[in-house]
Amino acid sequence: MKRTFPLVHRHFLFVVPVLTSLLLMLGSQPTALAQSPHPAIQFDTLTRRIHQIMKQEKTPGVQVLVFTKDSLLYKLNAGVMNLKTKAPVTDQSMFRLGSITKSFVAVSALMLLEKKQLALSEELKKAAPDIQFTNPWEATDPVRIVHLLEHTTGFDDLALKDYAVNVPALSLQKGLDTAAASRHSRWRPGTFMAYCNSGPAVVARIIEKKTGQEFESLVRQRIFEPLGQKTITFRRDGAALTQLVTNYSGGKTPKEERYWDIVERPAGSLNAPALELMPFVQMLLNRGTYKGARLLDASSVDRMETPTASLAAKAGLKEGYGLHNYTTSYKGYVFHGHDGGVNGGLAHYLYNAELNLGLVVLVNSDGAGFGKIDDAVLDVILKNTPKRLPPVYTLTSAEKESLLGYYRASNVRIGLSYWFEWLASIYRVFERDGKLMMTNVLDGEAVPLQPVAANQFIRLEKKGYTPTWALVRNDEGQTVLTNNDFQTMTTTSFIGAWFPLILGGIVMLLAVVSSVAGLVWLIQYGLQKRKRQPISGMPVRMSLWGYSLSLLLFLTTIITGISTDPFTLGLVGAASITIFLTTLLAAVFAIWAFISLVRYQRQIPHRADRIFLWAAVCSALIVIGYMAIWGLVGLRMWA
Predict the structure, then answer these.
(1) Are residues 167 and 301 in the same domain?
(2) What pLDDT does residue 533 have?
């Protein structure tokens, strides 16, 4: 639910009645205050850019707000709620907020903290002994509430089978029971951040136990009502029955998505119009107060914004993920907030109290339009704000040496995907013309790193983003580069970085060649059999062909499933059964190809032929061995 999907605007006049067209045009007009406390912001430029992006990316509908702690500066409703009905986006249109819901969990927890009904240091097993989880370090480093809120439990994220659950009436406890298997600490709690959707749901259940009140009811009473949020809802009920937009996946080739009843609602189920999310953000801008009513102490808002439960935070890094509140650094200014994503919908809120600015961006598509609109809003509202970066720190030779080298993605969000990330997510930090640079070795684009302390570095990205990274050491004493947000990388050697990549490229090339060669061998066998000159080593060749086709079908099914509808991979269906069978068959065929080659190699007359077959069969065994290590042989996505 962390952000990870349209008709061109000019076509509306040709496909809908004139009245609807006029409503769309009126609904797309921006609203801005006549007297703005930020007069230098060119809101007309922002409107043009948003419309251009919507047209280019075929984004169906958008709501954008820019505001201060007490006033609205800019409002834009643009596009349609539904591509079939062409109903225009209005102030009342409700969008899915996704993981923004987690911020409401954090505020609820802080409210209990202020009343001394809850402590962030409290152990999970004591606060909710009936919630299942496993932690190999529980005796010395127990999972605490703070770890759940800062995503430092080490828990895996929800499995695809958990994401596939779609039951409206499921209770919070039942939802937690459904997804219990993912709550396993893969590293010592309180060391590294990895996003996990179970954390906020567990905290919400603890809140229910502490208060004796259903979580949704408590939030409505203590947050929604004081903020005047009248239509916001956790379920598809009330105003959401008529005002909720339809979500679309697929970007420029939209596919209508059904409503997703999330198995653990506190992780990302809220629906609301932008104008009802704004008071929540203004409350944070006002350090806990909204229109004179205090929801939180200022110190609680400070705590919400500050990460503490990670090695990076303990090493002095102030940026990153706090209590369901994370940072976005732009031109050196740190914005706090959260984003969210569900099937076919994306959302984001950001605020900076020093600049007295907040923003909300909501779209009913998971295409590229959302990110581009997000970028455009920050670019325009900070266009005339000078960069403000901390002074450059001069590294000693030893400090620089400890940073330079290769890194591999580690401590990842989804354990099941690590087989791919371990292989492909390789980074390098190097020096060029006296400047430190960071690059992903597969895309080659180098981004400058500016040292700001012995163990902290700002990544100077082209679009103006300036996240801070920290250099720490893990329990094994390895150097780890982390931004305390969503990325952690552990040092590796030159050989450790490149050898798996090169070997992986070779084995995949041999698999592709074998898939083509298999068809040629089959044709040759048919032709030569008529001449009573059968091709040699056919059991080897056909087994190798079966392996290569199985492997390529497995990879194709995975890629297609993720790009079209990843939730279906978690159900028993054509895609998941194909994955299960192809991973099994690939292993069987690879082993049989090896046995056959040992048996029939002397019957293969041509040396070059034998060399190719040995190379292809050995590469197949390497692939199957790699798959077995990561638990991919006989993979049951629904289990």
Answers:
(1) yes
(2) 62
Over the range 21-59, which residues count as b (16 or more CB within 10 Å of their CB) and which as e?
bebbeebbebebbeebebeebebeebbebbbebbbebbb
- CA dihedral of 376, 381, 386, 387, whole degrees rounded to 10: -50
**One domain for residues 125 and 267:** yes
Query: d(Cα 359, Cα 366) in Å, to the nearest integer?
Result: 19
The first and second tokens of residue 510, run together, are 């041999």
Partners of 134 in the β-ladder: 184
Query: pLDDT tens across 357-403, in order?
Result: 999 999 999 999 999 999 999 999 999 999 999 999 999 999 999 99
- Cβ 359 vs Cβ 65: under 8 Å: yes
pLDDT score at 28: 59
Does 26 reside within a domain?
A: no
Looking up tokens 């409505």 gives 220
Q: Give the amino acid at 153.
A: T
Token pair for residue 177? Answer: 């029971």
- Statement to judge: residues 303 and 414 lie in one domain: no
Q: Token pair 């354990």 is at which residue?
A: 415
Question: Contact, 139 vs 182, CB < 8 A?
Answer: no
Q: Is 579 a member of any domain? A: yes
Q: Report residues of the chain scoring pLDDT below 70.
A: 1-37, 530-534
**Contact between 389 and 332 (Cβ < 8 Å):** yes
Rounded Cα distance, 600 and 593, in Å: 10
Q: What is the reported pLDDT for 603? A: 86
Continuous H helices in 428-573? 494-530, 538-564
- Strand ranges, E, within 9-90: 31-32, 61-67, 72-79
Calpha distance 67→282 (Å, rounded): 8
Does residue 618 share a domain with residue 540? yes
Residue type, 307: P
d(CA 260, CA 272): 15
Q: Assess contact for 479 and 469: CB atoms under 8 A.
A: no
Burial of 358 (0-12, 13-18, 19+ CB in 10 A): buried
| SS3 assignment, position 248 | strand
Strands 72-79 and 61-67: antiparallel
Residue 585 domain boundaries = 499-629
Q: Are residues 164 and 248 in the same domain?
A: yes
Diameter of the chain by CA atoms? 95
Residue 231 CA to residue 370 CA, distance in Å, equals 24
Residue at 3: amino acid letter = R
DSSP sequence for 202-226:
HHHHHHHHHHSS-HHHHHIIIIITT
- Rounded to whole angstroms, the Cα distance separating 617 from 412 reads 32
Residue 197 lies in a domain: yes
Which burial class, exposed, middle or buried, applies to 398 when counting CB atoms under 10 A from its CB (0-12, 13-18, 19+)? exposed
Q: What is the DSSP letter of 134?
A: B
Q: What distance in Å separates the CA atoms of residue 445 and residue 588, rounded to the nearest whole number?
A: 40
**Can you tell me the distance from the alpha carbon of 31 to that of 474, in angstroms, rounded to the nearest whole number?**
50
Which DSSP string do the residues of 536-597 spell out, in sequence order?
A: TTHHHHHHHHHHHHHHHHHHHHHHHHHHH-GGGGGSSSHHHHHHHHHHHHHHHHHHHHHHHH
d(Cα 427, Cα 424) in Å, to the nearest integer?
A: 9
The domain that holds 349 is classified in CATH as 3.40.710.10
Q: 377 and 406: one domain?
A: no
What length is written for the chain? 639
